[in-house]
Every structure is written in C-alpha cells, then in structure tokens.
Amino acid sequence: MSIAIWKLFADFEKEEAWLNEKAAQGLAFTHYSFLRYTFEPCEPGEYTYRVQYMEKGRWHPDSVNFLQFVEDSGVEVVSRYVNWVFLRKKTAERPFDLFSDIDSVLGHYRRVSRVWLAIGISQLCIGAAQIHPTVLALQQGESWGLSAIAGAICLACGCLFLVLWVRYHRKSTMLRKERVLYE
Fold first, then answer.
1. Is 149's pLDDT higher than 90?
2. β-bridge mates for residue 81, sequence order
3. What percent of the chain is helix, strand and coil (3-state, nearest 5)?
4. Domain regions of the chain by residue span
C-alpha cells in the first residue's frame, strides 16, 4: 500500500533529512512528482536517502555517467524530477555519502546556489515588470488589477529564492574557510 504526502521543500538538506526521518519511521520513499512524495512500508531505518542536483540535466552524458557510477556502487536511483535526483542505499551497508571531500560538497552547494540565484533574479524582474504598469495606472487614477497581485507574488518568491541563495553562499564560504584550515 503506497502513501502519498504533499509537501514543499526549497532546501534540499531539509528535504533529505525529512526523507531519512520517514525511512526511520518505516516509510520507504519511492517516487516524487510535483510536490508529491510517494512512500511504501519498509523496515524502520532500512534506507538512507540523498538528494542530488544535476547541473547538466539528467540526459546529459556527464549526468548519465555519474548516475551509472553511483548505481554501480550499490546506490539506487529512486526518482528524478527536472535536474534533481533522489538516491537511496540500504542503511546496513557502509555509510552513504555522495561527497568524499570538501571540494565536491562546495561544487554541489555552488550548483544549487546558482539555481536559486537565477530563479530569484528572474522572479524579481518579472515582479518588477508586473508592478511597474500598476504604479503607472495608480498615478493616473486607474484601478490596480491583478497584475499588482501577480507582481507582489513574484517579488515575494524572488526574495525567498535569494534568501536560499544567501544560505548556500554562506555555507560555501564557511566550507572554504574550513578547507583553508585543514590545508
């Protein structure tokens, strides 16, 4: 019997932690589609999950080679959504870490932060483009209409994505400082 849970995550680390909590409760994650996570019963703690962002898209040769490499090492590709890949491994096997050093973690943070920055800037631009005609209409005594609401939503989303960018940018900065300490 499968269970569907609708949930929104903007932080892949929180999403990963949530998937691992569900696994600890005996729910194995089996599929993702827009905001919908599907689970099936399993032994509590049977799986460990990781969420990976593929910069070049899932059909790019580099991504295909990477996914083949992780599958050859005993990791199962559970689900894919746009450029995000959900991976799992049996917990009883050795620890499941995708990154072997600070540089590879930095690379992942850099890829994720670039996505949030691009989305944030684009949302701010779209919001500003929606708000500008509304301001002009208000100055001429006309009604403000739906474009103001759409613009405000886009501006708010843009700010949210920029906050996410700042979060991963800070994490990257801290990791770079840590790397310098250990060199």
1. no
2. 84
3. 55, 20, 25
4. 3-90, 102-182
